[in-house]
Amino acid sequence: MRDVTNTPALHRRAFLKYTGALGAAAALSSSLAACSSGPESTNDTNDGGGGKNATLTAVIGYGNDGSWDPTQTASAFCMAANNHIYEGLLDTDPISREPYAALATQVPADLTSTSWKFELRAGAKFHDGKPVTADDVVFVFDRILDPKTPTLAKGFFASWLKEVKKIDAQNVELVLKFPFPDGISRLTLAKIMPKHVFSQPGAWDDAIKGKAIGSGPYRQTAHHPKSNTTFEAFADYNGPRKAAFKKMNWLTIVDAAPRVAKISGSSAGAQIADNIPYANIEQLKQGGMTVQGGAGMNNLFLMFNTQHKPFDDVRVRQALHYAIDTGKMVEVALKGHGKPSSSFLNEGNPFYRPAKTVYSYDPEKAKKLLKDAGVSGLKIEILAVNVSWIVDCLPTIKSSWDAIGVETTLSPQETTAVFTKMDQKQDYQVVAAASNPNQFGLDADLIMHYNYGPENLWMQYARWAGNSVAKQLFKEMDAATQEPDADKKKTMIQDYIDIVAEEAVLYPVVHNELMTAWNPKRLSGIRAQPYPGINLLQAKWV
């Protein structure tokens, strides 16, 4: 759910490049590389010979050179790290997404009210020793709601949150535009940052580059965008989820082979890694590692340029979806760790309902739709991101489309290159990429607005926002956002997802699992996430 109309193209490309939603690129920013402090290390710097004071070493399969500013980052690495460094008024469990009191002392009793009052936790301090106050809370929300400041977080709050007011030094009030119970879980996306630090000239640029000072259980001790970020338990933390590890070293290893090697064998240098390739699951299990998957919104989607004929015809878009042998794709490319899409939402989402249009494999129907649309001799180049599992899926799409007489060429490229073309409004036919808005939550309203909306980035890329069907869809989406009755709202969202499915402008082909591996002899309390990154706030040494 992002309004990116006024976001500079560079920031929009960075958003797309570094989000786990699209996979990480290996390219590194020289300006970020300059933001390095302390001794660079990609090794486990254990204290105490592997005992309770050992450094936990984690391997993250995404770059850590994206924006670290919590108000605008979508970087898988940085969001995961920020969840350990910062707190919201409320935070959410990484799996269930149930909200719990973090900087605030309790969750509001009446979620249907248009006024939520929060008392801050007594004695809460930032990592520089300064107390957390209401001024810090107002400072962050003012930035998020400022119409002149383009941030990712604005899209999560501006539609329903009117203002945040200071009551006194330890109390704040959130004033809502209308009752919006779903907003309570979104408060974790507004990390509270020290005003005395980030109100200084140039401080937001520093935040982008990696400066992180929060009130969470871990403080950042060094940041090297090319290699790693280190953490230390914050001694003065007095919140609900205390640090179990004295030190942590998170390595960024985007390439699969060295990432797997880092946690393999008796001399493994790390205890946990995310983004495990399906082909390495059995190898790691045989080596004593626990490997588990998280099934969620992670998906391969197709996005059509609706201003490039014949993709302005819904029958053509539908035909190309019906033609894909998704069963083969799940079996061969995903090794069984996925399901063909039966809705925009994955089956585990609380708002899931099979869409009225489900693209089961039906090549004959695909041929008929193309014939009805008057299309023959169609040649397509698929512009695709070169994320490894996406590349594995592409041959199935090509063979499926070739089989119905659509001559198909595959063109996988760096994620940055693909979306630079989108930003520059270059012509294209079809894009194949990955998305996972679950890193922002399970909220179906958020997920759908993240992908669809009149000023939405994706709709700009698909060039569909001006379509009459699109305009009606956006009205129905906004009406669902403001619907106070929970059951009615759920039905309204499911109904407009039926429109999204039928139109197939930007739509998932398969939903797949994300795999996490860890050493059960060293770690307990680990839960595999259905979105990129790791959360160690309830983990501990064995």
Automatic annotation (TrEMBL):
Record carries keyword Signal: yes
Q: Which InterPro entries match?
A: Peptide/Ni-bd, SBP_5, SBP_5_dom, TAT_signal, TAT_signal_bac_arc
Q: Which domain of life does the UniProt lineage start with?
A: Bacteria
Presence of the UniProt keyword Iron in the record: no
Q: Report keywords, A-Z.
A: Signal
Give the residue range of the signal peptide: 1-33
Q: Which Pfam families match?
A: SBP_bac_5 (PF00496)
Extract the NCBIfam families matched here: TAT_signal_seq (TIGR01409)
Official protein name in the record: ABC transporter substrate-binding protein
